[in-house]
UniProtKB/TrEMBL annotation:
Compartment(s) where it occurs, according to its Swiss-Prot or TrEMBL record: Nucleus, Nucleolus; Nucleus, Nucleoplasm
Top-rank taxon: Eukaryota
Biased composition (Polar residues): 128-147
Lineage: Eukaryota, Metazoa, Ecdysozoa, Arthropoda, Hexapoda
Coiled coil (UniProt feature): none
Function according to Swiss-Prot or TrEMBL: Required for maturation of ribosomal RNAs and formation of the large ribosomal subunit.
WD repeats: 490-531
Keywords tagged on the record: Nucleus, Repeat, Ribosome biogenesis, rRNA processing, WD repeat
Protein name: Ribosome biogenesis protein BOP1 homolog
Cited CDD domains: WD40 (cd00200)
Bias kind Basic and acidic residues: ranges: 12-28, 41-52
Primary subcellular site in the record, as a coarse category: nucleus
Organism of this sequence: Vanessa tameamea
Stretch list, region Disordered: 1-210
HAMAP family, alphabetized: BOP1
């Protein structure tokens, strides 16, 4: 064996020997006392019994630690059986034998080492080992070998003597004594958990220093790994050697501290419970307080009391909401205060006072002042009626009874309450001749009885005049101008006129009739300027509000036509620009529509014949068109289709030649749809409800409950904050959109169904017409002050045309600038009122 290997072996064996000697000394010195913790092999370096061994070999501590950590990890239990036997044998050696042996190892451990050395020597002699540098090295080796052999022989002799002594003692003892002595002699070296004082470094943290930082995870996760976790520096904690059932049984037999040894699941090390730990467990089993020093019956300390301390018990500041008043508490207090003011509830003091007063005996103060007892208010007795002429002692002749009346008087003697008088009128010449009244005492008695028994009470009468109930409205003379009479009657259609409208300037009138024609008239003279024959009944006509275009929207069956009245009507440059704008179709990518829209709307190509008649754009729908409404800018047209369900409202964009279906689901039977004058809103009227939608956000803004049975038409105020709804059940419903979703006022101004209504753009006027023979003009003033309600005043009932069947007036329109009213009549005429 090389010299450095021999030196390393010698250090290891000497280190093991010193440990065994220390264990023997500890066993002999302990008189079966329970220690707090069993000190491990690594902690034995500082023991007092190792001082002489430390003097013999200074550098053995570090090497011993390294060997112990690598081979046995934390316990000596996992060594081979030969090493265990050597430990048992070496523990019986006396101190003198220990000193003689020096740094040598046990008998069983030294045997394989000597074999290795002999094999190494033999190899060196045969030449297989590395060659020596000179003859001096060979002589030194031989001397070292001889010295080791002498020491081994001495150790063998001592061990044989010890074995012989043990055998003689065993023969004398029974089997139970042998087992007890074996357990007493055995010494198990366990490596306890390093308990470090957390306050040693000056740290006052309450957090416990955990060796294994694996966390709260099941330990069986590490069954297939050589480690059980990680320390604070991230290094792996290697598992200690595992024991099977046989090893556990042997440990139980050999280790006297086995009954109080537990295994740490986080590190896998064995921990011996101290005396204090056992006492704490015993107290816990008895359902007592773990700490013996704790006094359960010590005086109670009131930490939270009414006394305000200078130093708070809690170290964190109060929450911000503790400084803010609670809204719920404020509302509750306000309710209580209101109830106290109104007398609905009473305080505890008031209730206690009332109970105290009820318990006291009440006495009438006979000699007290009269003002203390408040007597009921005395009411004077009703006065008797003054005597009439018939009761006079000398009544006029007409009050005296004749013979016929006397016979009737006598007939009613059995039923005197049916007579005309309660007395018989009689004439006397003078007052002296008047006899005493025979029923005087009886009547006085009945009079006193009535005053005594009949209850009397003060009746509060309200003197209200009927004129005060009528609201004070301004005089119609103060609300002029408004139309008062018919000034122009236009004839020329062969059937009833369905719709009329003014152009933006007010100089021309367009009308559509059931005779299949659209006519353009001059407003001032009523002269027909142009007639366009379309071959089908016209349901609606509407002139575009844009001043830069000359277009008229015509609802013709299932088609929507946009007509140009011609260059001779209005400004010829506007007509030319309109034709140039509509002659060129937009790009193809702008015309694309989705499948749902294209299935119900189709933009048609206008041929030369239709272009010559004035048709510039034609749009075909899958249902008949009943209503047409322009947007304020003139680029969009809202079309209402009959029985269209979810596709009843279609919005057409003129500049891009495409259509949109703004609604996915049907909300009812749609009657009409109009745009807001300024905002991107659309009003959709169904049978009983008006819904307001936001076209940008694509959501429902408001739902207006009209209270009508069937809506016929709607009109939006030019300011956009008020709405007027007409119905077939003779109602006009005014909505203030800024106020509520309920009607502000309901007007009943017609005797029949209301079919048309319109607002004036400049004047605070609105008009309505229907199946009765009157057109009603009313004043509707909307103020800028939000606190002031609109003023609604009916002004004039204008005589309408004659009724044709059940119809009278089908449409009304106001002049853009003048207070003139235009009406489409069912008697084939158009009437202008001013």
């Amino acid at each position: 064996m090389p010299p450095y290997k021999a030196g390393l072996k010698r250090k290891v064996t000497s280190d093991k020997k010193s440990d065994n000697v220390v264990e023997d000394k500890q066993d002999s010195s302990s008189d079966n006392e329970i220690e707090d913790l069993l000190q491990g092999d690594l902690d034995k370096e500082s023991d007092a019994t190792d001082s002489e061994h430390e003097q013999e070999d200074d550098g053995s501590d570090g090497e011993r630690d390294e060997v112990l950590f690598d081979d046995s990890a934390d316990s000596v239990l996992e060594e081979d059986p030969q090493s265990e036997e050597s430990i048992d044998e070496s523990s019986d050696l006396s101190d003198s034998e220990d000193n003689e042996s020096g740094d040598s190892a046990d008998d069983d451990e030294s045997q394989p080492e000597s074999d290795e050395e002999q094999s190494a020597d033999s190899g060196a002699e045969t030449g297989t080992a590395p060659s020596a540098s000179g003859s001096s090295d060979e002589s030194n080796k031989k001397n070292q070998i001889l010295k080791n052999e002498n020491e081994k022989s001495n150790i063998k002799q001592a061990s044989t003597k010890k074995k012989a002594l043990k055998q003689r003692q065993k023969k004398k003892m029974s089997s139970i004594d042998v087992l007890a002595s074996k357990i007493q002699e055995a010494k198990v070296s366990t490596e306890p958990v390093q308990q470090k004082d957390e306050y040693e470094s000056g740290d006052t943290s309450d957090e416990e220093d955990r060796v294994n930082t694996a966390g709260e995870v099941p330990m069986w996760w590490y069954n297939e790994y050589p480690h059980v976790g990680y320390d604070l520096d991230g290094r792996r904690l290697i598992k200690p050697p595992q024991r099977d059932h046989i090893d556990e049984f042997l440990k139980k037999c050999e280790d006297p501290e086995f009954w109080r040894t537990v295994r740490d699941p986080s590190t896998g090390q064995d921990i011996v419970l101290s005396k204090e730990d056992l006492q704490m467990l015993e107290r816990l089993r008895q359902s007592r307080v773990p700490s013996a020093t704790h006094d359960e019956y010590e005086p109670w300390v009131e930490w939270f009391s009414r006394e305000v301390l200078a130093t708070p018990l809690r170290a964190f500041p109060e929450h911000k909401r503790s400084f803010l008043p609670s809204r719920s508490e404020q509302k509750q207090i306000s309710r209580i205060v209101h109830a106290l003011k109104m007398g609905w509830t009473k305080t505890r003091k008031q209730i206690a006072d009332e109970r105290k007063k009820k318990k006291e005996r009440q006495f009438y103060n006979l000699w007290g002042a009269g003002g203390q007892v408040r007597a009921p208010r005395s009411l004077p007795a009703p006065r008797r009626a003054l005597p009439s002429h018939a009761e006079s002692y000398n009544p006029p002749p007409e009050y005296l009874l004749d013979r016929r009346e006397m016979k009737e008087w006598d007939k009613l003697s059995e039923t005197p309450w049916k007579r005309k008088y309660t007395f018989l009128p009689t004439r006397h010449a003078s007052l002296r001749e008047v006899p005493a009244y025979p029923r005087y005492v009886r009547e006085r008695f009945l009079r006193c009885l009535d005053l005594y028994l009949a209850p009397r009470a003060i009746k509060m009468r309200l003197t209200i005049n009927a004129e005060d109930l009528v609201p004070k409205l301004p005089s119609p003379r103060d609300l002029q101008p408004f139309p008062t009479s018919e000034v122009l009657r236009i004839t020329g259609h062969e059937a009833l006129v369905r719709s009329v409208d003014f152009d933006p300037s007010g100089q021309y009138i367009v009308s559509g009739s059931d005779d299949g024609t659209v006519k353009v008239w001059e407003t001032s003279s009523g002269r027909c300027l142009r007639t366009v024959r379309l071959g089908a009944a016209v349901a609606r006509v509407a002139w575009t509000p844009a001043l830069g275009l000359s277009l008229v929207a015509v609802a013709l069956g299932r088609r929507l036509l946009l007509l140009n009245p011609g260059a001779d009507i209005g400004a010829h440059r506007v007509a030319a620009d309109t034709d140039a704008l509509l002659a060129e179709p937009p790009p193809a990518h702008d015309v694309l529509m989705d499948e749902r829209t294209s299935s119900c709307v189709q933009w048609e190509v206008v041929d030369a014949e239709q272009w010559a008649r004035g048709v510039r754009v034609a749009v075909a729908h899958f249902k008949p068109v009943t209503h047409v409404a322009w947007h304020a800018r003139g680029d969009y047209v809202a079309v209402t289709l009959a029985e269209g369900a979810a596709r009843a409202v279609v919005v057409h964009q003129l500049s891009r030649r495409r259509s949109q279906l703004p609604f996915r689901r049907a909300k009812g039977l749609v009657q009409c749809a109009v745009f807001h004058p300024h905002r991107p809103l659309i009003f959709v009227a169904t049978q009983r409800v008006v819904r307001v939608y936001d076209l940008v956000k694509q959501e429902l803004v408001r739902k207006l409950q009209t209270g009508a049975q069937w809506i016929s038409a709607i009109a939006v105020h030019p300011a956009g904050d008020n709405l007027l709804v007409a119905s077939y059940d003779r109602k006009l419903v005014w909505f203030d959109l800024e106020l509520s979703a309920r009607p502000y006022q309901t007007l009943r101004l017609h005797g029949g169904a209301v079919r048309a209504l319109a607002f004036h753009r400049r004047y605070p006027l609105f008009a309505s017409a229907g199946d009765d023979r009157y057109l009603v003009v009313a004043h509707g003033m909307v103020y800028n002050d939000l606190l002031q309600n609109p003023l609604l005043v009916p002004l004039k009932q204008l005589p309408g045309p004659e009724r044709s069947g059940e119809l009278c007036v089908l449409d009304v329109r106001w002049h853009p600038a003048q207070p003139w009213l235009l009406a489409a009549a069912a008697d084939h005429t158009i009437r202008l009122y001013a």
